[in-house]
Design goal:
Helices cover about 45% and strands about 15% of the residues. Strand 11 and strand 12 form a beta hairpin. It is built from ten helices and twelve strands. It is of the alpha+beta class.
């Protein structure tokens, strides 16, 4: 190697070393470190996301080799090396102090629907709705039929006869179906950042673990709250929430006991008389069934 080549390489090596040092410093300063998949993320979308979350998240596209070397220099985060198996493919590094689950929800909300290409995966069940395609009869009829869509011609246009599921969630979309969906204006693919793994205080959380079903979680919390409240009431455990209910329950129980025991008060006297009247009527009816002549006669 000539002296000229060596001198040319030195600035590049120094720049790379400096970049590694800067990244390792940033990783040390932030609480959480994550890796997100860049697949199908448009450059404009990434820039918009960076702008939107710049106060909470530092995002940077970094080569995996550089990231691994930077991770090796971080000494204040135990277990950080466990995230290295997730450093494959095209990634964007995420540095944040946000709760990993909150960050996941923010990224989920930022996703957009895009047209499918051959080999893409359906984000949800892909349904082609019944109705007018707006296209004239021609090759489109056979193209629609090839993907399982029943058609008819009406008023000079091709119509789809019924709602039809052409791809299930998670299925690969082939070239023929991708072409049909594009012509129909259906966008079945989600584009956006998907977290592959997140380091949080010594724990590596994977994509499956970070996914939250908000409706199910909300229902679980509501159910747990109801059970806890019922238990606290049954155990007469006073809290700011249960005290009004306990007082109300105590009043109701005391009132019922007073009625049952025949203790007359301004509040109970009417119900005691009403109870006595109903009991007398019930007893009179029972006696009349046994012996009609024994029942008291009106007047």
């Amino acid at each position: 190697m000539t002296t000229t080549n060596t001198e040319t390489m030195k600035p590049a090596i120094q720049q790379k070393t400096q970049e590694i040092q800067q990244i390792s410093t940033l990783i040390s300063e932030y609480k959480n470190f994550g890796v997100a998949n860049l697949q199908k993320v448009r450059a404009a979308q990434l820039q918009e996301l960076k702008k939107k979350l710049k106060k909470d998240v530092y995002m940077k596209v970094i080569k995996n080799t550089i990231t691994k070397r930077a991770l090796a220099q971080v000494k204040n985060k135990q277990g950080l090396e466990k995230i290295e198996p997730h450093l494959t493919g095209s990634n964007v590094v995420l540095l944040t102090n946000l709760n990993p689950f909150k960050l996941t929800l923010l990224l989920e909300k930022s996703k957009v629907k895009i047209s499918a290409k051959a080999g893409d995966t359906a984000a949800q069940d892909v349904t082609v709705p019944a109705g007018n395609t707006g296209m004239p009869p021609g090759p489109i009829i056979s193209q629609l039929g090839a993907v399982g869509l029943a058609t008819r011609i009406e008023s000079g246009s091709v119509w789809i006869n019924k709602d039809t599921v052409v791809a299930k969630k998670g299925e690969k979309i082939d070239e023929r179906l991708a072409s049909v969906l594009s012509k129909l204006g259906i966008k079945p693919v989600e584009a956006g950042l998907a977290i592959k793994a997140m380091y949080d205080d010594g724990i590596i959380l994977t994509q499956d673990q970070l996914h939250l079903d908000l409706d199910a979680t909300r229902n679980n919390v509501q159910t747990a709250y109801t059970y806890a409240l019922n238990l606290a009431i049954s155990a007469a455990y006073p809290t700011p929430t249960t005290t009004p209910l306990l007082v109300q329950k105590a009043h109701t129980d005391a009132y019922k006991l007073a009625i049952f025991s025949g203790v007359p008060t301004k509040e109970t006297i009417k119900d005691i008389l009403r109870k006595a009247y109903y009991e007398m009527s019930s007893l009179s009816g029972a006696v009349a069934k046994k012996d009609p002549n024994a029942a008291p006669k009106a007047g």
